[in-house]
Amino acid sequence: MEIGPYILLASLEGAVTAAVLALTAVGLSLVFGVMRVVNIAHGEFFMLGAVIAWYVAHWMGGHPALGFVAALVVAPLLVGAIAVAADMTILKRLDYDPERTIVATIGLLYIIQQLTLMSYGPEARPVEAPFNQRIALPWIERGESGWQFYYPWGLSTTSYKLAVIGAAGAVLCGVWALMTRTRIGLVMRATQADREMAVAFGIPVEKVYALVFGLGAGLAALAAVLIVPIQQAHYLMGADPLLLSFIVVIIGGLGSLPGTVLAAVLIGLSDGIISVFFSPTLAEILATLLVGLVLVFRPQGLFGTRAA
Hints:
Blueprint: H1 3-35, H2 42-60, H3 64-91, H4 98-120, E1 134-136, E2 139-143, E3 146-150, E4 156-158, H5 159-181, H6 183-193, H7 195-200, H8 205-227, H9 239-252, H10 257-277, H11 280-297
Antiparallel strand pairs: 1-4, 2-3
């Protein structure tokens, strides 16, 4: 088999990574863009989403689709509620000070992680996909009779992976519509632009902050529910999504949703292709190098704006 089908297969795997990464990073970008808070515990909200998905699917029993659909609803709402409670009891009391909130979210990270270890255990546990049919992928080549399709051996994906890409795209479109077409989004953008002016116009800024923090955590949990049938729920699984989300947000521009999505696609596809042809370690090295280049030559990111 020629190299083209391998590139297609690697690109599809990278697209799944990019879809989940985009959801996770958009949640982190929203929190920073509106609240100016660097949430170090964001990866643990991702992990909580996966663990809660396992509990819900295990409790529901029956057909895997029932537990999975229930997890899609329960996990983001429950993790979002936990994040709102953390905002109101911790971050609000610190007056959202940038330095102190970093320390507070680091503490929150360890609290969530250790509580999960105590209750869930150290084992990695899978969640069965609601559907997972194997789909053979065609390739095109030019033969004696002209261009024709054929199905190379081993060139295939699953229906669930394609569904993850589609679901993530739909949710991202929904977030964009929320931010640009609704009153709630207008209030969020006004708070992001000028907190003092928003307070002067009677906007309940602290409630907006709680909503944004919960929304960001809920998006991370939703991403985890989508990926956990492909990976497995584990109490240490939040580290990689946190690191990659920071890389994506820095490259795309702090607080820029279009930049975050574009950077997630770039990092996800490159990770998939480089991991298949070379090694995952090289993909991480190149991503880190790209962050360094962005910080040197365009500190505000690809779509970010330079501070006045």
